[in-house]
Amino acid sequence: MISATPPLAFASPIPLGAAFLLGMGCSAVLWERLAARWRTMRGRMAAGAVAAVPLFVLLRLSVSSIRGGSATGFLRAAVLGILLGALSGGYAASRDPRD
């Protein structure tokens, strides 16, 4: 049976690799700027939480054609980014030899 759906209808808005690289770049820039300003343990955790959100949201955007483009999915990705970013920021703050 031939499908009437055009093949580009299932293409993601951003390829997964490009979303990963763009998200990592945004997260790295945010981390460098925020971690330099917020030097306390809580500040580094907050910097990690803020910096991780672009990566998770862009990765979610890259799979939106497969998983659906609902706002709930993007909200879940942002919350996961905040939680994992805070954990990573806390780990980085505890391992930083400069402080």
Your description of this structure?
- The longest helix has 25 residues.
- Helices cover 74% and strands 0% of the residues.
- Helix 1 runs antiparallel to helix 2.
- The N and C termini lie far apart (65 Å).
- With 99 residues, it is mainly alpha-helical.
- It contains 4 helices and no strands.
Give a quick rundown of the structure:
The chain is an all-alpha fold. It contains four helices and no strands.
Task: Give me the secondary-structure topology.
Blueprint lengths: L15 H22 L3 H22 L1 H4 L3 H25 L4
Helix pairs in contact: 1-2, 2-4
Overall pLDDT: 85
Helix content: over 70%
Order of helices and strands: HHHH
Low-pLDDT parts are none
Shape: elongated
Largest sheet, in brief, is: none
Structural class label: mainly alpha
Strand content: under 5%
Give the end-to-end Cα distance, rounded to a whole number of Å: 65 Å
Mind telling me the C-alpha Rg? 17 Å
Oligomer: single chain
Number of strands: 0
Question: Helix segment count?
Answer: 4
